[in-house]
Amino acid sequence: ASPAAGGDAGERERRREGERGGEKGGEKGEEKESSRSDRENQAMVPLDVPLDARFVEVDQDTVDWLEAINGYANDAKSPAPTEVYAIAEKHFNETVGQPINIAVLGQSGVGKSTLVNTLRGLGPSSPGAARVSSTQMTGVRSDFVEAGHASPFNPTVVYFDLPGCGTAAVPRADYIETYDLRDRYDAFILVLERRVDESDLWLYDFFTKNHKRVFLVRNKVNIDIVSEAEDYSREPAETLDLIRQDLVGEFKLTDHDDVYLISAKVLDNTN
Prior knowledge:
By secondary structure, this protein is of the alpha/beta class. It is about 45% helix and about 10% strand. The chain contains nine helices and six strands; from the N terminus they run ααααβαββαβαβααβ. A six-stranded mixed β-sheet has the order 2-3-1-4-5-6, sandwiched between helices. It is extended, with a radius of gyration of 33 Å. The termini are far apart.
């Protein structure tokens, strides 16, 4: 073959390679464009989904949307749409603005009312304090406050000082229904004293079986610390550890941190 023929053949081969490379490059470009388009389509929320439904999960899209609302609000020439404000207000009222109802319950005389006052930063004779008395127990000789006791630190947090469970005035069989423990409250504080009552175990069992958030609070440990020191020369840390171990066994807990050891009583300095 002549050199000219060989050069022509080489040129044709280079052109074919170039065409194949161009086709591959085009295919890669199309794949890249398709991939970008797919991501954009996945990121988009269907237009037929109402805006308030998009509020359910706070993801980056929601954050971007809220930042856009803020930008509208700060731009006098581009006020935020009325619909956006209405949705934001509705979302606030249905979530952040809703009260958090916390029931404080346990046996009569364990210090439930005192704990409610302490959580609210109040002494027993402060205005608006839950009634505390050695002779007048909630639901027995003093009335259950149906509206609860709002926290002055966060008014959406409301504590309910429930009467003792299993008394003559409030039989255990009627307790759950009487105080609507299934639906009314968002969380429960079960207050205990030195002796764990059968009703305490019964209530705790009800809460766990119904997937309720419950906190076990052992009150008046200051009395136990003094008593154990006098009788057995025990250090405070040892006494607290013994109390915690006892409750872990009684309630069959898996973690010692599920028990809170406190002394709820505070001095009344309101004069």
